[in-house]
Amino acid sequence: MAMTELTTLEQIRAVLNADARSKPARILVHAKGCPPCQEVHEKMDEVAQHDLGIEFYAHEAVQYVELKALFKELGFKLTGYPTQILISQQGHLEFVVGGNKGIETLQDLLP
Predict the structure, then answer these.
(1) Which one of 36, 46, 81, 110 has the fewest CB atoms closer than 10 angstroms to its CB?
(2) CATH code, 32
């Protein structure tokens, strides 16, 4: 299964607010021209090809102010890119890992 690109903040909200979810979800928020973002995006896309029981999404941050406000609503601070959001199967926001954490973070967060 390929990673699904979310192009709008409304699409991110829909994933975050889904009442019934068949699988946990992971959203990667990344920026164009960011080498760590590209590295994590490539790895996450590679991992998404395997059936791990997780839905994978990506969002290229272009509306920074609005995206920052969305994170604030959720009780998190957008500290940099790449940022990864993990949502449980029950729809709970489990955690947000932000900033330049590199590929190790993705590997640590995967099952």
Answers:
(1) 46
(2) 3.40.30.10
- The list of the chain residues with pLDDT below 50 reads 100-103, 105-106, 109, 111
SS3 30: strand
Structural domain for 48, as ranges: 4-100
- Burial environment of residue 23 by CB neighbours within 10 A (0 to 12, 13 to 18, 19 or more): middle
* DSSP codes of every residue in 49-110: TS--S-EEEEEE---HHHHHHHHHHHT----SSSEEEEE-TTS-EEEEE-SS--HHHHHHH-
Task: Note the pTM of the prediction, 2 decimals.
Answer: 0.80
